[in-house]
Amino acid sequence: PPPFPRYGFILSPASASSNGGSRATQVSIPPSELARRSALEGKRAGKWVAMLKEHEAAAAADPALLGRAQSGLCAGDPELLKKRVRKGVPDIVRGRVWNLLGGVPGLMRANPDKYAILLEKSATFVPSRDIRETIMRDINRTFPKHAMFASAGPGQNSLRNVLVAYSLYDEEVGYCQGLGFIAALFLTYMPEEEAFWQIVSVMNRSPTNIRLLYIDGMPLAQKTLYVGDRLIKKFFPKLHKHLQRECCDISM
Fold it and tell me: Do 157 and 142 contact (CB within 8 A), yes or no?
């Protein structure tokens, strides 16, 4: 069978060999470097596990903390929390930490059975736009080389459920191509219902608020491209002129 790397992506025989070309080249990491990285991640994981235990103990006394990770992690020190997040959340605790930072436990506590109700509604509800057919068409295009989402993979049903449920939860957005990749990423780290509420969080809560990337007209996408173009012009003017000469728009 084709080999699987750490995060579940299927390595084809071509990508596992070194026959030349960027897609076919496998980078060899010395065992000493792998050991160093593993030890460092283990050390960081220990700190995160300790922080999570402290937060869970505090949340047991005050359930309101479930939606405010900053109040419990790193002893309520937001700068230390930011520093540790930027170093990288260890893989072993990533799903739990993302849930806390996104306020998922609080959202689920405030909306009991909401996800189940949306799934039940999706069985009979037919939206004005053919959203369900579009979602079904995109399922096989979402991480097709990942063990969970390859053809008939165990994650495809969960991915469909999350996307259909969100299309009913936020009918103005409905479904936009690209949401599937975010939902699939969350599903690799957390159960289906938690992944749904994580989508709700990143779409609507500060500081992400990415919902404007997906509504009609995609205003945040337009703004992001404009800002990117201005930054290139300011800090890399020669590159900006070169891209203009080559008719290479930033959207490309």
Answer: no
Q: What is the DSSP letter of 14?
A: T
Q: Where does 102-191 have alpha helices with state H?
A: 104-110, 114-122, 131-139, 156-169, 179-187
Angle between the N-to-C axes of helices 179-187 and 192-204, in degrees from 0 to 180, rounded to the nearest 10:
130
Judged against a pLDDT cut of 70, whether residue 72 lies above it is answered with no
> Cα(157)–Cα(237) distance, rounded to whole angstroms?
48
* Interatomic CA distance for residues 245 and 239, integer angstroms: 10
Tens-digit pLDDT profile for residues 109-120: 999 999 999 999
What amino acid is encoded at 82 in this protein? K
- Positive or negative: CA dihedral 88, 9, 162, 251: positive
What pTM does this model have? 0.84
Look-up of token digits 């337009």: 222
Q: Is the pLDDT of residue 102 over 60?
A: yes
Structure tokens at 60: 């047991």
* The residue to which tokens 């995160």 are assigned: 48
| Distance (Å, whole) CA 51 – CA 79 | 14
E-strand stretches of 31-136: none
Q: Which amino acid is at 51?
A: M
| Tokens found for residue 86 | 């930027």
Residues 47, 73 contacting (CB under 8 angstroms)? no
Query: Whole-angstrom Cα distance, residue 107 to residue 102?
Result: 9
